[in-house]
Design goal:
- By secondary structure, the chain is α/β, with parallel strands linked by helices.
- The protein is built from three helices and twelve strands.
- It has helices at residues 3-23, 36-48, 103-112; strands at residues 52-63, 70-74, 79-85, 89-100, 114-120, 123-129, 136-145, 149-152, 158-162, 166-213, 223-229, 232-237.
- Strands 1, 2, 3, 4, 5, 6, 7, 8, 9, 10, 11 and 12 form a twelve-stranded mixed β-sheet that branches.
- Strand 11 (223-229) and strand 12 form a beta hairpin.
- It is elongated.
- The termini are far apart.
């Protein structure tokens, strides 16, 4: 590409930005209106990108009613740690890494990354919320009453769960570990490494996943794992915990 073509592309980009800013609808209350300085700032941002970064850590607590039995967690990426404890409230520890145009913006965007808590009957929902600008990575630690059941929505976050009432997985993937689960670990897992130790029951459907069930992983009669890998599939149930099952047909332990 020659200099002439490059200059034409830059000229069209500037012209397009000017037309957009001039013809854009009136700003809502609290929003900034068009100005030449803002236009130049937007062009500069587009050319330089988000070169700065910042890290922010926050902690908070949320009350949990006695009627709440389940916590649903939505964290698409990053790291998720859930620790069951002898407590009646929810402890939230959030570490955020964010990019930004400069240090001040990176700090602001990191602080705008939050965990939103909603309640619906006997269920609480903890969802990571991110600003539109920059790019954020969140590491979330939840300290919870050990009686709670958990539903983990689709995620690739590195996940560690210990000491809770039960876990339901919804198309999770990546690297996960579950241990000291009073109830059952169940659901779907699609790709990655999954380790389960000391759970009362295990009932999973996995695709392209290396699964390791350690000694005592399934203490009850409910010990079934189905694995699938295109184009064939296989399933098998055990009368005791398996030593290993992965993307190939699972193997029962030797007598």
């Amino acid at each position: 590409m020659g200099k002439r073509e490059l200059l034409l592309i830059v000229a069209f980009a500037i012209a397009g930005a000017i037309v957009y800013q001039v013809t854009a609808p009136a700003p809502a209350p609290g929003e900034r209106s068009f100005s030449p300085g803002r236009l130049i700032d937007n062009i500069r941002r587009g050319m330089r990108g988000n070169r700065a970064s910042a890290d922010v850590a926050t902690t908070s607590t949320e009350a949990i009613d006695a009627a709440v039995t389940e916590l649903r967690v939505l964290l698409p990426t990053g790291e998720l740690t859930i620790a069951g404890e002898d407590r009646q409230d929810l402890g939230i520890e959030l570490e955020v890494h964010s990019t930004g145009y400069d240090d001040a913006e990176a700090q602001r965007l990191a602080r705008e990354t939050i965990v939103k808590i909603d309640r619906a009957g006997g269920r609480m929902i903890a969802e990571a919320k991110y600003p539109q600008e920059g790019r954020q990575t969140a590491n979330l630690t939840l300290r919870v009453p050990s009686r709670l059941q958990f539903t983990i929505e689709p995620t690739s976050a590195r996940t560690r769960v210990a000491g809770v009432g039960g876990v339901e997985l919804s198309n999770s993937r990546g690297e996960s570990e579950f241990k000291q689960i009073a109830g059952r670990v169940s659901g779907n897992y699609r790709g990655g490494e999954l380790r389960i130790a000391d759970a009362r029951g295990v009932k999973l459907t996995t695709i392209g996943t290396d699964v390791r069930l350690d000694s005592g992983a399934a203490r009850s009669a409910d010990r079934s794992t189905s694995t699938r890998s295109a184009p064939t599939s296989s399933s098998r149930s055990w009368t005791r915990p398996p030593a290993f099952c992965g993307s190939t047909p699972c193997r029962a332990p030797s007598p």
